[in-house]
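The following record pairs a protein chain with its ligand, coenzyme A.
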Amino acid sequence: MAMLLRPYRTSDRGAVYDICLRTGASGGDASSLVSDPTLFGDLWAGAYVDLEPEHATVLADGDDRAVGYVLAAADTLAFERRCETDWWPDAQARHPVGSGRTPLDQLLVALVHDPPSVDPDVVARYPSHLHIDLLPVAQRQGWGRRMVVRALELVGAAGSTGLHLGVDEANTAAHAFYERIGMELLGSDGSIRTYAATIPPGLPGSGVEAGD
Ligand SMILES: CC(C)(COP(=O)(O)OP(=O)(O)OC[C@H]1O[C@@H](n2cnc3c(N)ncnc32)[C@H](O)[C@@H]1OP(=O)(O)O)[C@@H](O)C(=O)NCCC(=O)NCCS
């Protein structure tokens, strides 16, 4: 199937939420684990496409449907501040404290009300961050590598000098991916690993190479 990378459009929003859910269980499909299918997207996708769409890229299939995305915040601290006013209050109203029928719903609702914030030492060295998810149909064909490079190019063009990301400690496939493409493992808090790459002026050269 012919696929291509293109900038995010608002018409992709539903597909982005769906991909977020279908890759939310340490890279696998989380749809049977939640009763509210919007929780994953409200936590890890919606704010990026709504508040910083210029740094969102989708992988589209032959019917122009999004089958993967890479979403980035160029300035993580500024993005977090913006979320405090322009994202979390509405998300919290959509998911009231104590709502959620399944244990995972309840865990995610608690996160909506107490969003994790980034380690100041990490963000000082790597001010940007990203989220990347591809449906199984798009995995292991070189797209993920190209999409990380695209995100580095976009935030680099916005003046960023480094990018980090968090990945579930259980998502060993993603660890293999990030290590293979040359990202540096900064550490783990026991449940989330942090990987990073520097972005020297004038990409390429971040250590993450696009391949062919
Ligand atoms: C993890 C993910 C982004 C990787 O993207 P991808 O398109 O599948 O990976 P690529 O095909 O670009 O692989 C790039 C390199 O990593 C390697 N790699 C990718 N997945 C791997 C795996 N599971 N085990 C070992 N190596 C792997 C590839 O072999 C390739 O190496 P090569 O260039 O030397 O051949 C994608 O599989 C995905 O979205 N998975 C589900 C959701 C997820 O886990 N997201 C990350 C959350 S932090």
